[in-house]
Design goal:
Growth Hormone, Chain: A; 78% helix
C-alpha cells in the first residue's frame, strides 16, 4: 500500500519533469538545427553545404545513443537521464561556437545523442512511478514534450539576434531539465523493468521477440524518411520560396509545437483505434502536412505554411507516441529497450531522408520535394497494416 501511494503521489512530478527533459533534448538540442538553419547559413555561410549532412549525423547519433540505451536503461534508467543531459548540453555549446563545417557537424552529432538517451530512460521511470491506469496518458504527455521544446526554440529564434547566445541558453535548459528529471528519482529502487504493460501481452507472444518489432520498425523507417524534410529543410523551403519572411521563421516552429501539443492525446487515440489505426491516422496527417507545405510554397501563403507546420507537429508527436505504446505492448518487460529499437528505426529513416532530400534539392523544386515526402508518409502508414504470423 505504501509503495502504491508513493507511486501515485510522485507520478505527476515525474511526468512533468520527463516532459521538460524531452522538450530540451528533442525540441531544442536535436530539432533546433533545422529551425535555426536560415540564421545559421546567413551568419555562417560556410555551413550552408553541410546542413543536410549535419541533420543526418544528428539522426545517426540519436540512433547510436538509443542503441546503447536499449541495453542500459531498463536496468539503470538514471544513468540514461544523466547521459541525456551531458550530451545535449555539450552539443548545444558546440553549435554555439562552431563556424567550421566539420566542428559544426561534430557538435550536432553530440547534441543528437541526448534524445536517444532521454526517451528510453523515461519509459521505465514513468511506468514505475505512475499508477497503472494513467501510464499510457503519462507516456503520451512526456512524449509531447518535443512540442513544448519546439515552441521554446521558436520563441528563442524569434528574439535571438545571433546564434551563439541562443544555443548557450538552450544548453543551460538541457542541463537544468536533466537535473530536474534525475533528482526526484535519484534514490528510488523500483525503476527497473516496466511493470504496467505485462497484463497486455498478446496471447501466444514471447516477450522480447524481435519479430514483433519488424512491422512497426519498418513503418517507422519509411514514415521517418517522409518526416525528415520538414524537420531539416522546412524553414529553408518556406523562407526560400518567400511564403514566410526570414524574420518570422520562429513562428513556423511555434506553430509546429502548438500542433504537437495534441500528441498528449495519443493514448486516447490508440485506445479508440488501436495501434495500427492510430499509426495510419497520424501518417495520413503527416502526408497532408507535407502537401500543405508544397501548397504554401506554390501559393506563397504564410498562413498555409503555419497550418502545415501545426498539422506536422500533431502528426509527428502522435507517431512517436504510438511507437512508445507499441513497444510497451509487445515488449512489456523491456519497454525501454523496445522504445529504443523503434525510435532507432524512426531516426534511421530520418537520417536517410535528410541526406536524400539534401541531394534531391539540387534536382527538384520545393513543391515536388514536399510531395515526395508526403508519398513516403503514406507508404509508412500502409506498411503498418502488414500482418505477420
Amino acid at each position: 500500500m505504501l509503495a502504491t501511494t508513493h507511486r501515485r503521489g510522485s507520478g505527476l512530478g515525474a511526468a512533468v519533469a520527463g516532459m521538460l527533459l524531452v522538450a530540451a533534448t528533442y525540441g531544442m538540442a536535436r530539432f533546433g538545427v533545422g529551425l535555426f538553419a536560415p540564421l545559421l547559413v546567413a551568419l555562417r555561410p560556410d555551413l550552408i553545404g553541410v546542413i543536410g549532412w549535419a541533420a543526418a549525423a544528428q539522426f545517426t547519433s540519436y540512433s547510436l545513443a538509443a542503441a546503447v540505451a536499449a541495453r542500459l536503461v531498463d536496468r539503470r534508467p538514471r544513468a540514461g537521464l544523466v547521459l541525456a543531459g551531458v550530451t545535449s548540453t555539450a552539443g548545444c555549446l558546440g553549435v554555439a561556437v562552431a563556424s567550421d563545417p566539420v566542428v559544426f557537424v561534430v557538435a550536432v552529432f553530440i547534441g543528437g545523442m541526448g534524445g536517444g538517451f532521454a526517451s528510453p530512460a523515461l519509459v521505465p521511470v514513468i511506468d514505475a512511478v505512475v499508477a497503472r491506469r494513467a501510464t499510457a496518458t503519462a507516456q503520451s504527455v512526456v512524449n509531447s514534450g518535443t512540442a513544448v521544446g519546439v515552441i521554446g526554440a521558436g520563441v528563442v529564434a524569434s528574439v535571438a539576434a545571433s546564434v551563439g547566445p541562443a544555443w548557450v541558453f538552450m544548453a543551460l535548459v538541457c542541463a537544468v531539465t536533466a537535473v530536474a528529471a534525475w533528482y526526484p528519482v535519484r534514490a528510488r529502487t523500483d525503476l527497473t523493468a516496466s511493470r504496467h504493460a505485462t497484463t497486455e501481452t498478446p496471447s501466444g507472444s514471447v516477450p522480447g521477440s524481435w519479430r514483433l518489432l519488424v512491422v512497426p520498425g519498418a513503418a517507422a523507417v519509411v514514415a521517418g524518411a517522409g518526416a525528415a524534410l520538414i524537420w531539416t529543410f522546412g524553414p529553408l523551403l518556406a523562407t526560400g520560396s518567400g511564403s514566410v519572411s526570414p524574420d518570422r521563421v520562429g513562428w513556423l516552429w511555434i506553430a509546429l509545437g502548438l500542433g504537437g501539443m495534441l500528441g498528449a492525446l495519443t493514448g486516447v487515440v490508440v485506445e479508440r483505434l488501436g495501434r495500427r489505426g492510430g499509426w495510419c491516422l497520424c501518417a495520413g496527417v503527416l502526408a497532408l502536412a507535407n502537401a500543405g507545405l508544397a501548397l504554401s510554397v506554390v501559393a506563397g501563403s504564410s498562413w498555409v505554411a503555419y497550418a502545415a507546420m501545426a498539422l506536422f507537429g500533431a502528426a509527428y508527436m502522435g507517431l512517436s507516441g504510438v511507437l512508445i505504446l507499441w513497444a510497451r505492448r509487445i515488449w512489456p518487460n523491456a519497454a525501454g529497450a523496445g522504445t529504443s529499437v523503434l525510435f532507432i528505426a524512426l531516426a534511421v529513416g530520418q537520417a536517410l531522408g535528410s541526406a536524400g532530400f539534401g541531394i534531391a534539392r539540387d534536382a527538384l523544386s520545393p513543391g515536388p520535394l514536399a510531395l515526395l515526402a508526403a508519398g513516403f508518409c503514406v507508404l509508412g502508414g500502409l506498411t503498418a497494416l502488414i500482418r505477420t504470423r
